[in-house]
Amino acid sequence: VRDKLFNMATGILACYRKTCTSPNSAAGQLILPEALKLLPAYMCSIIRCTAFRPGGDISADERVLGLLQLQEMSASQAVPLFYPRMVALHDVLESETGVPQALRLSYARMKEHGVYLLENGLEMFLWVGKAAPAPWIQQALGAASFTSIDANMTSLPVLPNPLSARVRDVISAIRAERKPFMRLTVVKQKDVAETIFLRQLVEDKYNDLASYVDFLCHIH
Predict the structure, then answer these.
(1) What is the chain's pLDDT, residue by residue, as a tens digit (220 residues)?
(2) What one-character DSSP code corresponds to residue 187?
(3) Helices 39-46 & 75-82 angle (0-180, nearest 10)
(4) What is the DSSP letter of 35?
């Protein structure tokens, strides 16, 4: 299945280059039409989902569950599963409303002093950097410092301050967009559970899977 998806993507792009581009186009230039600019990103992401990702870290039961979930999903529900949404929470303004702008899914774009919320339509992760400001942790998570954060919490405490309300509002707004209720998992930087979070960063290299940049070079 992975090979078929890869061949399909390269075939579509090769056909477009052959029949629709100018003869004067540079030979080494990767040309993508406006409607297909996200095709390589989604193809790179699809082969990373539980249903198709290679490797022995996925049990047969988990893979079958992933396939069944895909069969039941609409296109709009599958989009965040293939390319999750990540937003920064450490710099949200308490006076704003709604969900912050989404970020590219790469660890290199994250900061150690940052706090990020990532959701894929099925589950939600709150990643806390080891240098996250203590006042933010105290006001939003109710912990004295990074080391005292309870990684087993599945909901944020209701605290009497504007930052707590703003962060909880972002989580509620995202949950309202999705059909299944997404369980919240708190992930501390460099903790064991961070591996699960890193799988969601689909633009990075993961085990034997190429990064998005390497994938672009490969299909080109």
Answers:
(1) 777 877 787 787 777 777 776 666 555 556 676 777 777 788 878 888 888 887 777 888 988 998 898 888 888 888 899 899 999 999 998 888 899 999 999 998 999 999 999 999 999 999 999 999 999 999 999 999 999 999 999 999 999 999 999 999 999 999 999 888 999 999 999 998 898 898 899 888 876 677 777 777 766 6
(2) E
(3) 80
(4) G
Residues 6+ apart with CB under 8 A from 48: 199, 202, 206, 209
Written as one letter, the residue type at 88 is A
Residue 99, amino acid:
V
Burial class (CB in 10 A: 0-12, 13-18, 19+), 145: exposed
Locus of tokens 């990643």: 127
**Long-range contacts for 161-166 (Cβ within 8 Å, ≥24 apart)?**
162/94, 163/92, 163/94, 163/136, 163/139, 164/139, 164/140, 165/94, 166/92, 166/93, 166/94, 166/96
**Entry pTM:** 0.84
